């Protein structure tokens, strides 16, 4: 693997994008490259199709974990790597190629190839599975390419990297009527409209919460396409997010209470369920300093983000069991943003990211 071309590795992974929990071909490709590095420990089927490889250094020291994602973004044309996970996987394969050849580093290095990140399930499942194998680590790291920043600039986040979020589904049940007699129906239309307006109001009322919150209506369905019937049921789905998990819980309670009042006033029943819960992803100072020191040693420019990411990240499940740092690396501003059709991963990120991770691994004091 002396002449490993990471751009070609990424291109190979790019050709087989797969949905969450269906990363079979992706896992096969990763395993082919990782087995060639002869890790000291190798586990498959972790959290689904996840892969964990462990490499021991020659000196005692803390154990470090580096994570990438395996799944692709679902689109109307099928799965597509519109988030750069193909690039992130290629970076860790590059790290494996480096640390397997020169073991003059302290401690142990774990490389985690995580499935099902896009739906927020893979990390939590990996945490459960690694406990069965008694795998643990002191520090954990992950990066994400960021098309809103100049190429290869490291973007650091103080404390919160990504918001907590949850999907909230409110199902209203009433009774329909003939459209000529709407007064006979228990119609959810106005209750749902009121909820949309209340979420809009709470989004802009800074007095209600300690920090940023955002509610986004993602789906509404009321009645059927029948011009002779007043609807008797309806559903609204929203995504709620906040930097502070206490704010998120308060947001949920406020909407629950408001929906209950509107349902009662209209003779409706409301059932509320929650989906895709993400904790907030929080950075540790010690782990962040390790990234900063490595970037400075390599002369990589660093910028501190003005605010956390509004999106959510299931890497949060790893931050609960280790000292962690999640940061971004600039993808260049020529590409469209992630999850958009015009997005393109910049191969120019690959080698610098491998050098950055390698610097974190090698430039530590042994115990």
Automatic annotation (TrEMBL):
Gene3D superfamilies: 3.30.70.360, Zn peptidases. Residues 165-263 form the Peptidase M20 dimerisation domain. PANTHER family: CLAN MH, FAMILY M20, PEPTIDASE T-LIKE METALLOPEPTIDASE, PEPTIDASE M20 FAMILY MEMBER. It holds the Pfam family Peptidase_M20. Keywords: Hydrolase. SUPFAM superfamilies: Bacterial exopeptidase dimerisation domain, Zn-dependent exopeptidases. The gene is hipO_2. It is an enzyme of class 3 (hydrolase). It comes from bioreactor metagenome. GO terms for molecular function: hippurate hydrolase activity. This is Hippurate hydrolase. The keyword Hydrolase applies. The keyword Hydrolase applies. Its EC number is 3.5.1.32. Coiled coil: none annotated.
